[in-house]
Amino acid sequence: MKDKSIFLHFFYTLLLLLGSSVNIILVVNGSNDNANHKEIYIVYMGAAHSTNASLRNDHTQILNSVLRRNEKALVRNYKHGFSGFAARLSKEEANKIAQKPGVVSVFLDPILKLHTTNSWNFLKHQTPVKINTNANTASNSSTSSNTIIGIFDSGIWPEAASFTDKGIGPIPSRWKGKCMTTNFFNSSNCNKKLIGARYYADDRDSTVRDTIGHGTHVASTAVGVAVTNASYYGLGAGIATGGSPESRLAVYKVCSFFGCSGSTVLAAFDDAIADGVDIISLSLGSPASSRPNLMDDPIAIGAFHAVERGILVVCSAGNDGPNSATVTNDSPWILTVAASSTDRDFQSNIVLDGNKIIKGKAINFSPLSHSPKYPLIDGESAKTSDATPAEARRCHPNSLAGKKVKGKIVVCDGINDIYSTTLKVDMVKREEGVGLIHITNKNWAAISNYGDFPATEISPKDATTILHYINSTSNPLATILPTITVLDYKPAPEVMFFSSRGPATLSKSILKKSKTSYLSNVAIQNNNLKAPITTDSGSIATPYDYGAGEITISRSLQPGLVYETSTIDYLNYLCYIGLDLTTVKIISRTVPRNFSCPKDSSSDHISNINYPSIAISNFNGTKVVNVSRTVTNVGEEKETIYSSVVDAPSGVNVTLTPDKLHFTNGSKTLSYQVIFSSTLTSLKEDLFGSITWSNGKSIVRSPFVLTN
Question: What is annotated as the active site (predicted)?
């Protein structure tokens, strides 16, 4: 493993932002019954136990054994971090390869999907440690400046000010990557900041350059240098900086307008491992509705081999919330990132006649008068003769009569609607309306931008006030004000509506160590005002919403106790989910000689993986469940005693043995048992609690969840 101090330092940084002779697993899912139809399949063969040349020969021999002579089917080779290849095959050919010795899995190449300046300032307000973000201030941390972060995304726009290399030292000699020359991009676009750039050939988008914007956004948020006077046409003005501005950036373009193919994601993992990155960040994944099995998941496979080599892999949880069990990238070796809000808001308020102000949220540069002089109408009152009241109330296409809308501000109901605000704006503009007020229960962190058209979004509660005003006034008037930036906005943080929720779909016995993300307008998990974190609807958030742990920058650097999740934990996990020892030895390059799968390798034992959280599935009052945890003292005080406090739900008994941990110079690592029992015969809902260890200086809290 690499120097753990590197990862301890950058652990918080990416938060604001997985040959034998026996066939193991056969997973071949084809959608076309035509045996001659060719599609790209991924053939996964576990760890790279041989040399690159030997692996290439192995892959070629396997392909040639099922293909017609001289047929060119190979798409990609994986030979650095793990063994495998991608090839254009028929379903029959894929099935034949799946039977070959040493092949772990064969699966269709999946198409994955891609899932801000104030986030870091918000984090700094949660800590007593002052962090200087002056653009001219250089870090004196050589560890920081030599950390290499690999971003798998849609490429990079190298001219962005966030990627200048002023004041950054020489590129680390251990870096083995490359800066590729492609269309509209060459090696001179790289520098001492942007030290690597790769793309994976797609004839439709053959450049490292970012044609979407997502990759540039993610990269600048993670590692961008401080840029002064940053704003969006005056909004959100200040210093824009990434979480680790002195870190090096390596870009791997795996996504385009057409999606992110799993075979290219695996190729990026293979290259990044060989290139020498320290951290890999991916803000992409499978849709929650089509979550793959572990050995069919390119991200889980690639991440496993990266983590084996000491590389931290950070992935987005997904944007399929707020329903439960929508989290993706939930393999236990991945640090999964959720989304929450910061204390900055962009408000476009509504002024009713009589100067009553209703809070709205959007970005627009409204040209309307600040005086409420524009007629106000609800969508249902502006319906066409052909539209239903419900269609008009929601401002569905072709539901509004132009003569009723012209010159007016229209109120549209968007609660749980399938049509976007943008579509409704276009329709109101077409009918010559002058503004739109959209009612929504989705508190999106990525504020909608409507340019110079006066549009804003309001809550159902505020909508009641506006609709009452319309219905009780003969000549209702209003205006929509241009957007302003609001700082110190409360409540903050909020778990965002769209952020994917737990429990993990791979196993309910894992409570993901997910954190709140930097990808929206976001920050951390509690507000440090002794008030619990909430969802954007105002309800109390649970560990399914925000995962495990609470991030405060200074405390994450001095945590007191840490839970080390080891390679053995991950090997045991593979056993617990049903893989046999032969398979595990093919997959992993670090299996100890004396390792064997536990005798009772059932999913019930997944709870014993040394995670900082605890999840117990199939729990009821008929059995007692015992799990163990091991903690390591990394605090300044080598001789110290940690006492425990348990917060247990009603009807559940939680006992710790021992209930105190006495660390000495000779006992840096200690273990404890957690015994769960209950008087409940069944659980009507999942139950949550926590275990907290404290020595008076450091506080280490572990959430737990019990499911039936």
Answer: 153 (charge relay system), 214 (charge relay system), 381 (charge relay system)
